[in-house]
Amino acid sequence: MNLPRALRSYTIPGPAGSLEVIYRPTRHHPAVGAALVCHPHPQFGGTMHSRVVHHLARAFGDAGFVTLRMNFRGVEGSAGNYSQGVGEVDDVLAALDHLRRMHGELSMGIAGHSFGAWVGLRAMSVRPEVEFGVAAGLPVAIYDFSFLCESERPLLVVQGDGDRFGSEETLRTAAASWTRQVQLAIVPGADHFFAQQLPSLRRRVVGFLQDLQ
User: Fold this and answer.
1) Using one digit for the tens of pLDDT, what is the confidence trace for 94-109?
2) What is the CATH number of the domain that holds 174?
3) What pTM value is reported for the model?
4) How many domains does the chain divide into?
5) Looking at the domain assignment, is residue 1 inside a domain?
6) Range of the domain at 188
7) What is the pLDDT of residues 197-206, one digit of tens each?
8) d(CA 212, CA 207)
């Protein structure tokens, strides 16, 4: 399969019409894995260009992964309309299919920020080929993550100690019943968007990915 040029958006078929994506290869040869990175809430300005999403993708690249970022339905160049997180899971599944067609030989992971983590991890729960997840700014005060109780796959959650959508106490209480392989990384001084703490986010993600290898 001819791979797309790096950092140029293109579209793939989606359940509500075309989905806009950006593919990034890695400088590592051979690549060690492939990952889909999902953006925060589309009704509050979230896109595949959001800063945390960008840094998540860069962290995966640093660890030797190729990445695919996507815009959910109705965002920028993606067709359709916001679907309360239901249709967005279908968008993720379509993007995973595309990534698997490109790199079916590689181990696959999924990552997301905030709403994107909720949607992405729900998609992971129904796709056994996704071997692990990475979540940044998990909004445990807003969404139900009890589906993670059924998972045995590794999961890293990076959370700021000032995250107003998921305090450390709320996160630890919720995570006590999740997969036994969950790792919590609390970033001191970080808010939901990791302002001034994006390098700390990247270091934690890279460390987790390197430990997986």
Assistant:
1) 999 999 999 999 999 9
2) 3.40.50.1820
3) 0.95
4) 1
5) no
6) 10-212
7) 999 999 999 9
8) 9
